[in-house]
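haha ok so turns out i had the wrong file open the whole time. this is the CORRECT one, sorry everyone. sequence first:
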Amino acid sequence: MSPLELFVEIAGWAGALLILGGYFGVSTGKLTPRSALFQGMNVVGAAGFILNSWWHGAVPSAALNVVWMMIGIYTLWRISKPKGSSTSAT
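then structure:
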């Protein structure tokens, strides 16, 4: 196994562990769904899955994880905005 192949496999397994760890944390009440840690685990985990899935030609899995990562990035952006910074008049 080449160093690049090893890196891709480690990225995939690390991604799996991060996403499962985040899910376990939310399921046991140790993390909240809107916490930066949970969302960060999902973003980095999805990135590992994207790399590994693409490498192995699993395009549907790679596409799913691109969306998964975008949701996490969007949520991180939303929770990082200061309260009351909305431009809406509600």
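Residues 46 and 65 are 5 Å apart (CA to CA).
again sry for the mixup
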